[in-house]
Design brief:
The complex is a heterodimer of chains A (276) and B (191). Chain A contains 12 helices and 8 strands. With 276 residues, chain A is of the alpha+beta class. Chain A folds into 2 domains: 33-88; 98-265, Alpha-Beta Plaits, CATH 3.30.70.20. Chain A has a two-stranded antiparallel sheet. Chain A has a two-stranded antiparallel sheet with strand order 2-3. Chain A has a two-stranded antiparallel ribbon with strand order 5-8. The longest helix of chain B is centred in the N-terminal third of the chain and has 30 residues, at 34-63. Chain B has one domain (2-188). Chain B contains 8 helices and no strands. In chain B, α3 (34-63) crosses α6 and α4 (72-94) packs across α5. Chain B is globular, with a radius of gyration of 17 Å. The chains are: A alpha+beta (276), B mainly alpha (191). Chains A and B meet through α1 of A and α4 of B.
Chain lengths: 276, 191
């Protein structure tokens, strides 16, 4: 009984193996060895920051498609871009290092809670119920972004998410995870930031938050580089224009934001924010 | 005439997917586009017919004479797995766009209970060799038929405004239920 079953299964397995081995030679598909080499130098986090569906997908595209740049990997940065450029024979331009920013300071704004939320501890779930805060655009603080971050750069602190600038690679996964679109990618060199995502104006914002942006448009008017605009109810800064203009503007936008002081200068690493 | 009735029964009355409820995975996964569905259906028909052939022969000439019927399940699975691997290699070489479109669902034909189900059903019903061939082809065709119908419906559903909670797979599942209900109408066709 046992011997015959063992023999049969062994024989069948062997026959199948032989057939498949022959078939794999007959149906052999040529694959460029460079694709595997590029795959090796990529971080392998499959974060999608390059715009492709994972590292292998980008490796295949950059080798086969002459139009794909070698510096798409934001997470890998300059080093990876150089290595990919070497392997594919393309030239790597400098790619702007980006970092994620949380556009919410509900702790400073003393935003009240509407109700005690006791549901699933996830931002996506809380957002479906409208969120427990009085402001509809606040950071919910359940950490969906933190869990999504492939580089472990985020942590929760006092109901708000905190981003470690040393670990953040600007891949953008968190920006896609946040159900309220509070996280934004900005250049590491950015000079100013607006810490509010509210799409409401004036009285509506003042009723719920002491620090939020009221869309008074003073910064828009005062910026000499015309880099600031109001898009979809939120203040949008064109950082390229801002950096191009340079420090000659003497931070006109920060000075213009008198009522709320929500437009703030970017701090150098280690610098503490002074009380306003 | 017997064969004709058998074919009608396999495709409509006892549709392997909608009535006997085997093989739902590619039903929901490969039915977003008609072209993919046709490709998947073709692959399933091929695997089913070849699998039934080989398993019938093995059952007749190896398992039954040596009293090894208890090995039926595992032997059948080994045969199906090898066949699916073969189909994968072939598709990757001969039809790369179809290979890419099917993606993960191609190796999933291995664990597709419809293929194993048809092979075992032929044994249960004690069909002869030709009958098994005809039945497996008809059942595989019934599977593909239901799959292509579903794809056609889902292609059109994708263009319609729908509540967000129902969009995507949820609407697919509801459609599957409705299709199964409609196929139940064939039950009285062959007494």
């Amino acid at each position: 009984m046992i011997t015959s079953s063992i023999l049969l299964l062994f024989g069948l397995g062997l026959a199948a193996a032989v057939v498949l081995a022959v078939a794999s030679k007959v149906f052999y598909v040529e694959e460029d060895p460079r694709i595997e080499a590029v795959s090796e130098v990529l971080p392998g986090a499959n974060c999608g920051g390059c715009g492709f569906a994972g590292c292998d997908s980008y490796a295949a595209a950059v080798v086969t498609n002459p139009g794909v740049a070698p510096n798409c990997c934001v997470a890998g940065g300059g080093d990876t871009a150089d290595k990919v450029a070497e392997l594919t024979g393309k030239s790597a331009g400098a790619s702007e290092p980006m970092i994620s920013l949380r556009r919410c300071v509900k702790d400073e704004g003393k935003v009240a809670k509407k109700y005690e939320y006791q549901g699933v501890p996830s931002c996506a779930a809380a957002h479906m119920m409208g969120g427990a805060d009085a402001c509809q655009y606040s950071c919910l603080g359940f950490g969906d972004c933190m869990r999504a971050c492939p580089f472990g750069a985020m942590s929760l602190d006092n109901g708000l998410v905190r981003i470690d600038p040393a670990l953040c690679t600007g891949c953008g996964v968190c920006t896609r995870t946040c159900p309220r679109n509070i996280l934004e990618l900005i250049p590491v060199r950015a000079r100013v930031m607006v810490f509010c995502s509210s799409e409401d104006k004036g009285k509506a914002v003042m009723a719920v938050c002491e620090a939020g942006c009221i869309s008074c448009m003073m910064c828009v008017k005062k910026c000499p580089a015309k880099a600031i605009s109001l898009k979809g109810g939120r203040i949008h800064i064109d950082h390229e224009k801002c950096l191009e203009f340079g420090p000659g503007c003497e931070m006109a936008c920060v000075a213009a934001c008198k009522k709320r002081k929500i437009m703030r200068a970017r701090l150098a690493p280690g610098e503490q924010r002074q009380a306003a | 005439m017997d064969f004709f009735l058998m074919i009608i029964a396999a495709i409509f009355v006892n549709n392997i997917l909608l009535i006997q409820y085997l093989g739902n995975c590619p039903f929901l996964g490969c039915s977003k586009e008609t072209s993919t569905a046709i490709g998947m259906g073709g692959a399933v028909i091929f695997v089913t017919v070849m699998a039934t052939t080989f398993t019938w022969l093995i059952q007749k000439f190896v398992l039954t004479p040596y009293g090894l019927e208890y090995l039926q399940t595992i032997i059948f699975i080994v045969v199906i797995a090898a066949l699916v691997q073969f189909v994968e290699l072939f598709l990757k070489k001969a039809m790369p766009p179809l290979y890419k479109a099917l993606g993960i669902f191609l190796p999933l034909i291995t664990t597709n209970c419809a293929v194993l189900g048809i092979a075992i059903l032929c044994q249960r019903k004690e069909y002869g060799f030709i009958e098994s061939l005809v039945y497996s082809f008809a059942a595989g065709f019934g599977f593909s038929f239901a799959l292509v119908l579903m794809a056609g419906i889902r292609e059109r559903l994708a263009l319609v405004r729908m509540p967000k909670s129902l969009a995507g797979t949820s609407s697919g599942l509801v459609m599957a239920g409705l299709m199964a209900l409609s196929f139940l109408a064939f039950k009285g066709m062959i007494s």
